[in-house]
Amino acid sequence: MIKTALALAAATLLYAAPAAAQTVRVPFGDLNLSTAAGAEAFDARTAAAARQACVVGPRLINDNCVRRVQQEAVRNLPAARQDDYARARRGERILAMVAPAWPA
Predict the structure, then answer these.
(1) Which of 16, 68, 91, 102 is most buried (CB neighbours < 10 A)?
(2) Backbone dihedral region of 92: left (phi > 0), alpha (psi from -120 to 50 degrees) or beta?
(3) DSSP helix/strand/coil, 55
(4) Distance CA 18, CA 54 (A)
(5) Domain boundaries defined on the chain
(6) Tens place of pLDDT for every residue, the chain, 104 residues?
């Protein structure tokens, strides 16, 4: 009974925080996060990095860990990039207005 409880506790700890001691890096400098394609590419990169960080066993991936890593990656984007990403994910268009410089 005690051996089973210890094994269960160890398995729970392994399941709960596989990425806690890891740093996950997701490059995004080459992506235009204001477009749907850029946001999708960021999501794909984040998901791939999260799956690598959240491996629990030989072929097990902690889905809760993957979601937390993905959410944290978005939170760690610079504020302007977060806004662009959020608008692109909602399908909103981002319009830019170009105005001439102050008269010379």
Answers:
(1) 68
(2) beta
(3) strand
(4) 5
(5) 2-90
(6) 444 333 333 344 444 444 455 788 888 999 999 999 999 999 999 999 998 889 888 878 888 999 999 999 999 999 989 999 999 988 866 555 555 666 65
CA distances from 61 to 16, 34, 50 (A): 11, 30, 9
In sequence order, the 6+-apart residues with CB closer than 8 A to the CB of 19 are 50, 53, 54, 62, 65, 68, 69
CA atoms of 62 and 89, how far apart (whole Å): 24
CB atoms within 10 A of CB 80: 10
In single-letter form, the type of residue at position 40 comes to: E
For 21, the token pair is 């001691």
Tokens of 7: 């094994």
Q: 93: left (phi > 0), else alpha (psi -120 to 50), else beta? A: beta
Residue reference for tokens 């319009």 = 95
